[in-house]
Amino acid sequence: MGGSMKMTALSVMLLMCFAVRATDAQAGIVRTVVAKKFITSSVSRFGLGIEGMAVDQVGNVYAVGFAGDGTSGIGSVANARAQLEQNLLVKDQTASSSFNGLRFLPLSPSLSTNFDLRALAADVKSHSVVQFLRSKRDGRTRGSPFCQNSSMIQPNDIAVAVKSGRIYMTGGAYSNVNTVVGHGDLWMCEGRSSFTNTSRELDLEPVEAKLLGLFGLTNGIEVSPDEKTLYLTESFHKFGEPYSNFIWKFDIDQKTGLVDNKTLLVDFQKLDGSGHVDLDGMRCDVHGNLFVTKNGMNGETVKISPTGELLLRIKLPGLYETTNVEFGGPDGKTLYMSGKCIDNPDLGCVDMWDGNPAPGAAWALSALHH
Ligand SMILES: *[C@@H]1O[C@H](CO)[C@@H](O)[C@H](O)[C@H]1NC(C)=O
Ligand SMILES: *[C@@H]1O[C@H](CO)[C@@H](O)[C@H](O)[C@H]1NC(C)=O
Ligand SMILES: *[C@@H]1O[C@H](CO)[C@@H](O)[C@H](O)[C@H]1NC(C)=O
């Protein structure tokens, strides 16, 4: 009896081993790493609204949600040497703005005479994207509308095709408990010419915003380093809870900037059963691998290849609810991830991970222009 019990226990163990192996094989063996805490609530100058991480032209990383719980302030997170640095870049004193996505643009030769920083920020409240320029004369950063349209749902996140001079924006109406197509959108604004080289860019009149499509809740957005592919996240909620999360991929028509050939890149329910966890920020490294933050409690960042394979999981023990992601640091390989700063001194607001073999695409582009 004892013997057969042992045999049974052994076969159960063997069966379990096989079961685990089979699952691993199906999912691929995915490496998991753990990020380090970088800014915790106790030292943070950011509040609950921290997100929209972005790297500037010299490698400093910034986020929105500086100085308070609102999102009308933009401040630095880390300098180009990957040291903690929390300084205000710009704050909308009227608090009539609510910034979300943030991106820095190169300064072309004509602009660099007068300015040393150029950024675009999505303003949820005014359904617009604001352009910021920092003057060399007085060091002040001033904003003016880059593009706007009152039928934009938000905008939320921004992706930039620097060479083509185009930006793409997402927006989702998250207050709806049951998502239908139309609760999220995709927009494009075309600058007057390339963001790297132009003589007409000093014209500060806003450009037209074009609606490219309606979806479920759209959030993370990124353009591949060759500017030929657009990646977009889409989520659906039922009774206020997410149940499906996708990354879509589109071809970008190089002439018009319009998108075509919608293809499913990742269905997270099929990938690992995580359709109930919303996706948030998305950034590429120079090889076109995507880094996507997953929003729920005990969030993580996943690395996805351009063909949709799950390559890596980055666990985020320091974050409460993960929001956005961006590369910075001296070699562009330091990944910063933001999460809501809450009243727990040990949790939030930024974690970092240093192990990617390649730099971020936005960082590399900025290094190129400096
Ligand atoms: C940039 O603009 C200048 C002046 O218009 C032009 O001569 C030059 O060829 C342009 N460079 C690129 C890379 O487009
Ligand atoms: C806003 O966008 C919609 C959809 O593309 C368009 O029909 C409308 O004309 C735009 N409004 C303005 C003021 O550009
Ligand atoms: C969409 O796919 C078709 C067929 O492969 C291709 O001919 C077309 O150029 C693609 N569209 C874009 C915008 O790349």
TrEMBL record:
Domain of life: Eukaryota
Keywords assigned by UniProt, alphabetized: Hydrolase, Signal
InterPro entries, per the entry: 6-blade_b-propeller_TolB-like (IPR011042), SGL (IPR013658), SMP-30/CGR1_Lactonase (IPR051262)
Organism: Marchantia polymorpha (Common liverwort)
Any GO molecular function: gluconolactonase activity
Annotated signal sequence range: 1-25
Domain SMP-30/Gluconolactonase/LRE-like region: 151-338
Gene3D superfamilies: TolB, C-terminal domain (2.120.10.30)
Protein name: SMP-30/Gluconolactonase/LRE-like region domain-containing protein
Listed Pfam families: SGL
